[in-house]
Design goal:
Layout lengths: L1 H23 L2 E4 L4 H13 L4 E7 L5 H14 L2 E6 L6 H4 L5 H19 L4 E3 L13 H7 L5 H4 L4 H10 L25 H15 L7 E5 L2 E5 L5 H7 L4 H7 L5 E4 L16
Length: 276
């Protein structure tokens, strides 16, 4: 009975977002290739009467495999896909890594998307913010609000669970994809963001994911790589590192110490230092 009610509620949300796209006519989708933006793009393709344009950011702050996945998904959905270069590391306010770092990143990105929308005569720019995101610390949402970027998943009250359920129904292989936020989120606030740090974080996480561990964050504390993985994967990691092979590979990237966080994986753990 509960499952039937859940599906009914989800169907209602789906109908709401359908009406949203019908009214907007044409949209520019901020497309990262992640779980949320992939479903958003899929729904836009199905329900938008006019043009759907997907725009992705190619950036040093994004994991390398994300842009390739996004291009593949856009091709499969038959959507025109534009990849733009964003140069966050050229913005001193972003590089200094304040607690509202994401605001400066999103402000630059959304400004570019609004400009592209104007060139294509598309007024509406949308992003993949979902209903659960309103309970998290996300200063980038303010940039979107200031620039008139809309978040239909959030506004139609689609939660992360809803999005994964719908993604599975639509046969999107991102339905169980692990979240992959920008690499700068691994650098503690007020510690300078550099290309060297971002590259070694990305390479360290690739090493760990190669073990079959989907969710991983390598927090860059200058000389220390603090590894967060789900507790259920501790045994897998420790077995692979029994002769320090994994540790040595990560140290070779420039770290002096490698630490496995006993608290396990926590999305946004660096926000724990912020005052409520």
């Amino acid at each position: 009975m509960q499952k039937i009610e859940q599906e009914k509620t989800l169907d209602q949300k789906l109908d709401t977002i359908k009406q949203y796209f019908i009214k907007r006519q044409s949209v520019v989708v901020a497309f990262s290739g992640g779980v949320d933006s992939t479903l958003l793009l899929r729904l836009a393709v199905e329900f938008t009467p006019g043009k759907v344009l997907a725009v992705s950011s190619k950036s040093s702050v994004s994991p390398k495999d994300e842009i390739e996945l996004g291009a593949k998904l856009a091709l499969e959905l038959g959507v025109e896909h534009i990849i733009i270069d964003t140069n966050e590391l050229e913005n001193p306010k972003f590089v200094s890594n304040p607690t509202n770092r994401c605001y400066y990143c999103k402000s630059g990105l959304f400004s570019r998307l609004k400009k592209i929308g104007s060139e294509y005569r598309i007024e509406t720019v949308i992003d993949g913010t979902n209903f659960d995101d309103i309970t998290d610390y996300r200063p980038g949402m303010l940039a979107g609000q200031e620039l008139g970027v809309e978040s239909p998943l959030k506004d139609c009250r689609l939660t992360k669970d809803d999005i994964r359920i719908l993604s599975k129904k639509y046969n999107l292989y991102t339905w169980d994809k692990a979240a992959s936020p920008c690499l700068s989120s691994r650098v503690p606030y007020n510690s300078e963001i550099t290309l060297e740090k971002l590259m070694r974080i990305d390479k360290a996480e690739i090493i760990i994911r190669a073990l079959g561990i989907k969710e991983v964050r390598v927090r860059d504390h200058e000389q220390i790589a603090r590894i967060e993985i789900p507790k259920k994967d501790f045994g897998l990691f420790l077995a692979a590192d029994s002769n320090s092979e994994i540790t040595d590979q990560i140290k070779a990237l420039g770290y002096k110490y490698v630490s496995l966080d006993s608290n396990g994986f926590r999305s946004g753990s660096l926000n724990e230092v912020l005052k409520k």
